[in-house]
Design brief:
With 133 residues, the protein is of the alpha+beta class. The protein has one domain: Nuclear Transport Factor 2, Chain: A (Roll). 50% of the residues lie in helices and 23% in strands. It contains six helices and four strands, in the order H-H-H-H-H-E-E-E-E-H. The chain has a four-stranded antiparallel sheet with strand order 1-2-3-4. The longest helix is centred in the first third of the chain and has 16 residues. The protein is globular and about 40 Å long. It starts with a helix and ends with a helix.
């Protein structure tokens, strides 16, 4: 009986501490799509998985998350139901791709760069800062 209880407790502890696992992006387009979908869904844990981990990107994604969290339930739902509308996906070189898109809820156009770092495709949001000029 003690063995069964101990086994159950171990499984429960492992299950509680097991975070979500995400698959690495297959290519730049996949990284962009995964990141954008996670952002529209408000799944910022997943969005950060596909994000180039640096201080500027972490600041930008935290601002996006704050904005999403402040939205009313109906608006968040409309983002979750929105389709990604790719406008242009262009390789700049073998390790940088420009991904311009909008979504079916809000027609605002956004461009992000997808960069390959150590063989992994990640979203770099800093291109958004260049669009503000």
């Amino acid at each position: 009986m003690k063995t069964i209880i101990a086994g159950f407790l171990i499984i429960s502890i492992i299950a509680c501490h097991a975070g979500k696992t995400f698959n690495k992006a297959e290519d730049a387009q996949d990284a962009g799509r995964q990141f954008i979908r996670a952002s529209l869904d408000g799944d910022y844990e997943k969005a950060k998985f596909y994000l180039l981990n640096d201080s500027v990107n972490l600041l930008l994604i935290s601002k996006w998350q704050e904005g999403f969290d402040k939205m009313d339930r109906e608006t968040r739902q409309q983002y979750k139901e929105a389709s990604i509308l790719p406008i242009s996906i262009q390789a700049i070189n073998d390790s940088v791709t420009s991904y311009t898109y909008s979504n079916s809820f809000r027609k605002d156009t956004t461009t992000v760069h997808i960069v390959r770092v150590n063989g992994e495709w990640l979203v770099d949001l800093k291109e958004i800062l260049n669009q503000k000029h």
